[in-house]
Amino acid sequence: MKLMPQIIDSQFLIKIIKSEANQEEKQLFENWLNESDENKEEFGTLVLLWKKVADSKLPPIPDQDIQWAKLQNQLAKLNSVEPEEAKYPPLKVVVPETELISKKKIGEKKDYGWILKVAAVFVILFSIPLLIYINKNSKSAHRVKQIISSQTESLYSLVAGKGERKTILLSDGSLVYLNVDSKLIYPARFTDSSRVVELIGEAYFSISHDASKPFKVICSNTITVVKGTEFNIKNRNDLVRILLTKGIVETFEKDSNKGITLKKGEMVTFDEKIGFSKPAKANIKHFLAWRKGKFSFSHTPLEDVMEEISRFYNVQVVFRNPAERSKNITGVFDTDSLEHIFSIISLTLDVKIDLNGSKVIVQ
Fold this sequence. Notes:
Layout: H1 10-17, H2 23-34, H3 37-53, H4 64-79, H5 112-119, H6 121-125, H7 138-147, E1 155-160, E2 166-169, E3 175-178, E4 182-187, E5 195-200, E6 202-206, E7 215-219, E8 222-226, E9 230-236, E10 239-246, E11 248-253, E12 259-263, E13 266-271, E14 275-276, E15 280-281, H8 284-287, E16 294-301, H9 302-313, E17 316-319, E18 328-334, H10 338-349, E19 353-356, E20 359-362
Parallel strand pairs: 5-7, 17-20
Antiparallel strand pairs: 1-4, 2-3, 3-6, 4-5, 6-9, 7-8, 8-11, 9-10, 10-13, 11-12, 13-14, 13-15, 16-18, 19-20
């Protein structure tokens, strides 16, 4: 049996690009990419950078020699040196004996040589099922088609169940980080005139810029339109919350031409009965704590706190005393230990919380 290589260098990457890798070598990349959101973010960056330095569209795979020459010239410009002086240190990813790839550390200074060299690797990844697990959802797909007539025919759904989070790299290079108990409905490839997805639950979007083809997110009875920016949308308990972290977005109620413009750091909510709230400054760290693996609560009823915990840990919560539901708590909690979270809540609110397998009793 052929052993999986322990180090990935430039020769190995070229082997991947040329589709000469065996199944074990492909598995190496699957493990590394799926190990963390940070690794997926790196590949998202590579995709965007590739689009800037490569002339040909994908597929097919560009000519290796021509593209490496272009990459060298690009690196030379970045470093203000002649192409022949540009250095390309090999990428090294060490694989422990457990075959789980160690997380690659990214320093404060960007290593553009490494990024440019590995940019080509993403080409082969589109032919390997390693980014996500997808399944057709015809009912939801039909609903999206009714809302946006220009949507493509091939629609898929990515589901992050309770206790799991997922990340997807869309065909235009946009990244979507799906929170627990959420679903994203998206096309295999966007059309020439439209980029449309639908969200159920919560997700953070990092959208590839395209002024000629705005990106639209359908969520409940709202449509959020951007050209290239980053934002978070949450839809829970019949309330939609849109938080902008970069750039500018517009959000509309369906069948309405009157939109609300959000600027960086602003948030707006939508309620089916009262419509949109006025845009207001928001505490980004608080509302995006989930992206850092934390819970952040501010005068939050214990019932809502337990609802979030139930989603993240995939547990069932039962209140023996209804009066405990309305007790409020404020604080930031790491998600590393459920027992530690319950200990702090118990001491703070003077309640008893018992964890028995997948069932939580509050009394």
